[in-house]
Amino acid sequence: MFSMQNFPPLPPTQRIVKIVRDKTLAIMKKGVSFLVTVALMALASSLVSASDPSPLQDTCVAIAEPKNAVFVNGKFCKNPNLTVAEDFFLSGLDKPGNTSNPVGSAVTPVNVAQIAGLNTLGISAVRIDYAPYVGFVTSNPENRLISKVLYKGDVFVFPVGLIHFQFNIGHTKAVAIAALSSQNPGVITIAKAVFGSNPAINPDVLSRAFQLDKNVVEYLQSRFWWPNN
């Protein structure tokens, strides 16, 4: 083994060069460490932000043989070179809907079925001829009702997935333009889905769920439920 005493001390100039070199190496090591950290953070961020597309139909069952498939999650895309202005245009949203129905409202959709250019954009709109009283109910266990009377120019937001309603408490017609976070949003009318399903839900199930007499459930199931969509 050698001891440090076996070597003569370095001249001042060489010591300065060695110190500078050591500091440079230390700075380079820190720089490499910083770059590795940034790269890992960027990789982690890219993984966190990735997500599956939202479903655009009620079911999309995987199929082993592609040639037997008939649906995609959305619409097939047109050749971009054939795109025209009409692909992004719709007229007639100024026309009022017919509210002479049991629910007293009408929905005029503006989704990918009406404007093909909405495909993959994740947005759509509707014109609703109805009422200025709106609200929604929060999820279990609170089930808190949040509602408000709306006036001309007001905006109200329904959180995604929560049961909500609109009702006209005024004496004149009302219209609203709604923006939706899907190119083809689904609609579930609660009463029709529960009491007007095809085939009908077992009355014993609904009798327990709604704490109603079975005869009342069967009466509700026998009624025609207006498809308010």
How would you describe this protein?
The protein has 4 helices and 6 strands, in the order H-E-E-E-E-E-E-H-H-H. With 229 residues, it is α+β, with helices and mostly antiparallel strands. It has a 3-stranded antiparallel beta sheet with strand order 1-2-6, with no helix packed on it. Strands 4-3-5 form a 3-stranded antiparallel beta sheet, with no helix packed on it. Strand 3 and strand 4 (145-149) form a beta hairpin. It is globular and about 60 Å long. Residues 1-5, 15-20 and 42-50 have low confidence and may be disordered.
In short:
The chain is of the alpha+beta class and 229 residues long.
Count of alpha/pi helices: 4
Q: Which class best fits the helix and strand makeup?
A: alpha+beta
Report the β-strand fraction as a percent range: 5-15%
Roughly how many Å is the radius of gyration? 32 Å
**Total DSSP E strands:** 6
How far apart lie the N and C ends?
A: 89 Å
Given as residue ranges, the uncertain stretches (5+ residues, pLDDT < 50) are 1-5, 15-20, 42-50
Largest sheet: 3 strands, antiparallel
Shape: globular
Summarize the helix and strand pattern as letters.
HEEEEEEHHH
Strand order of the largest sheet: 1-2-6
What is the arithmetic mean of pLDDT? 78
Helix content: 25-40%
